[in-house]
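Entry:
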Amino acid sequence: MYITKKHIPAHSDKIKMNNLEVTLDYDRGGMNYFTGRETPRGYYLIVSPVVKDGCMVSFEAFSGIKKLLVECKRAGKGAEAKARAMVDEAEKELIAYLDNKYGIVLE
């Protein structure tokens, strides 16, 4: 279950999308079978280009990006507060990365 989620209206000529979905989430970590690597446990910020149509949200697989904000042994209010304080700066960084990759224009 995500902690916070918001949608930012945007568009691109390279990928089908009409919003960027920004999510702060806690990941329990463990083995990632797609990459074959261990994923650290902690709070992540995820930014994905999506198509939002009313209540429906669809996305293209592997089109988003995520960044570990706070690595921790378990979910807690202190670590969550630390992650929330880092969201604005990390959000700008991830949106810039997707802009470079897909030519995203924020509306």
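The chain has a mean pLDDT of 94.
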